[in-house]
Amino acid sequence: MKKFNFRSFFGFESSATNELNYLKNKAEKSSDSCGGNCSCEDPKDENAIDTGALNKTVNRREALKFIRNTATAGAALASSSFSFGKEEKAERAGIKMDEYFKSNYRLMTDKEREASIERLERLSEIDHGVRPEIKGTKAQPNTLYGYAFNISKCQGYGDCIEACVEENNQDRKTNMQYIRMFEMENGHLDLEEGKADYTHMVPAEGHFYLGTQCFQCANPPCTTVCPVQATWQEPDGIVVIDYDWCVGCRYCEAACPYWARRFNWNEPEVPAKEINKEQHYLGNRLRTKGTMEKCTFCISRTREGLQPACAEACPTGARTFGNILDPDSELNYILKNKKVFRLKEDLGTEPKFWYYMD
Amino acid sequence: MHFLSFIKDSLAAATKGNKNFHLWMGVLSLFMMIGFYAYTVQLDEGLITTGMNDHISWGLYISNFTFLVGLAAAAVMLVMPAYVLHDVDFSKAVLIGEGLAVSALIMCLCFVTVDMGGPQNLWHMMPIVGIFNWPQSMLTWDVIVLNGYLAINVCIPAYILYSKYCGREPNKKIYVPLMYLSVFWAVGIHLVTAFLLAGLPARPFWNSSLLGPRFLASAFAGGPAFMILALGVIRKCTTYDIPAKTFNKMAMIITVAAQINLLMLGSELFKEFYTPTHHSLSAQYLFFGLHGHNALVPWIWTGISLNILATITLTFHKLRRNPVFLYPACLLLFLGIWIEKGMGLIVPGFIPSPLGEIVEYSPSWVELCVTVGIWSLGLFIFTLLVRVAIAVEQGNLRNPQT
């Protein structure tokens, strides 16, 4: 039986549902006109889709443009009168200004996205001496990512955590980690009893290991609560954050039942030589203080057809990542043939992360 | 222009006073400056300078915000009897009550702003230029109700005072509908703030249908308690006469609200501890400590003791009508509810974390200084508003041309 949903009952569709509707509309539209994947896409149409997804009128864009132009003119005036001396400093100030007044990622046109990426790459070059390649790869069609974790294979080595930190350019100063590895006593499946801060040799006798991260819920409570729609679910099921749009209220962190979100309490630090240059706008690009971030199933890798860093790094083969919609994927084999379970299913968040044992 | 001279005269009335007044404002200004300095430190280095972390991501700021929403909502307890039930005994206090609501709301907005990781990005929340996640996010509802309530509570007294300043009776057709609106709106601001927390299944400690009603009960006790204290000071320091009847009636309201609040506390405790489940762990941590962690235990028992003591005192007619008991009881109640809504509600909601980990919280000096600074700002504004209101009501502030 279908569960009663308060929000949809009262017409408060969740952003995930909005997103789905919008994608459906988009698919229909493109198949009507010229059968989808072609280069004749009208840029105006792109605008219409973007604004439609967020129920916004063009007013917003015009207002933004006005503010941005005024502010940029002001900044130019200021920089000409004060004369920064170094050209780079002035360039940086200009980039910062343009970045500050840019729109939410989902409202930008493809052109605006490209321009922003160009600016962000240059900014990283100025600030960190490293010019990354930031991608804006979109969700692939017919893809819904999922993850399976074999609790009888995991030995608690923690290679996944290390690989995750390196891949995702997480703050080394506060030792931020997306993955939490719990050492659980045999016979208990209560996280309350688990220890995440073990330092002894693993595997420990009579224990098993249970890794957690963002479970990319199908019904994520974190996106609903965001006051500015800075976080949403992508069509391939990945919940992402627009770091530049986030206001840092941390409501999403309070709403997550799996403690999967992390906040940049200080200016994050990654040594220049350790910066991973293969980046994605919605993934592992360098963040600034005061914003939220989270596991994105390594969006920078997986949208290019690679495995997430944690799955690749696991020495025991406990981690399986794949496409739920692909009937031949290993993930689907596991879901069909193993005894799988999920954490806190009673909350109805529908995590796309399953545990199983051999 | 009468209005310009109204502003000018009001400023003069609000800023002229005796030595004690200037000392009071001076001390508040000093605290405000200290708070401002602490906030610049926080802006510079990030929220790492606070005691918060990924486990306890809301602390003293949001605690105070939650409490102050209640203080603002409490103005309705004066407005409703005075204008809706036509109870003249409240008429002398109602403008002061609205002044309290305005200052409490400004403090609320300050507390929310200092809690933001990116306050410079708050324009993202503005309709048209930004994106408002309405009606999904309860936080956007809160932004609407708080700012709306602030607007109502600025407009009504400003209109009434300005009319009196010009020497004419304020038009009831204009302000009475707004008064009615403010009554509903006041209930709204506190319910929405409660729903902000109660809507999170990830935090079983807040995920209770009693949270909203309990917020209202505690607000209608704590808010008027502060009002009685403020009116007591006004009565002592100025020639503005507030009849004893006003005090008695307000004390009655406080008593009933405090009793209902205790009743609800009892019902919450029963639910948490008669058949304790995993969802009771936060309550267990708060009241008795969990796995050797018990930082909040002294806080909550102090808060509850203050609440019980004050409620018992207020329950006896003889004690309630005697200022010797009434004022201390109101002070205790105010403090008790501040603890209960602050350290006793927001912080334990985060302990243990959704994955069962226990990390404790204590505010840093930055948080403490900023908090004291914002409270000083609130009291500063409240003092100014009250002085203008009293000057107009007493007829000391009149437009000479009318």
TrEMBL record, chain A:
The keyword tRNA-binding does not apply. Pfam families: Fer4_11 (PF13247). Residues 237-266 form the 4Fe-4S ferredoxin-type domain. PROSITE patterns: 4FE4S_FER_1 (PS00198), 4FE4S_FER_2 (PS51379). Keywords: 4Fe-4S, Iron, Iron-sulfur, Metal-binding. InterPro entries: 4Fe4S_Fe-S-bd, 4Fe4S_Fe_S_CS, ET_IronSulfur_Cluster-Binding. Coiled coil: none annotated. PANTHER family: PROTEIN NRFC, PROTEIN NRFC HOMOLOG. This is 4Fe-4S dicluster domain-containing protein. It comes from Lentisphaera profundi.
Automatic annotation (TrEMBL), chain B:
It is a multi-pass membrane protein. The chain crosses the membrane at residues 21-40, 60-83, 95-118, 138-162, 174-200, 215-234, 246-266, 296-317, 324-351, 371-392. It is found in: Cell membrane. Pfam families: NrfD. Keywords: Cell membrane, Membrane, Transmembrane, Transmembrane helix. The keyword Ubl conjugation does not apply. InterPro entries: DsrP-like (IPR054823), NrfD-like (IPR005614). Belongs to the NrfD family. This is Polysulfide reductase NrfD. It comes from Lentisphaera profundi. The gene is nrfD.
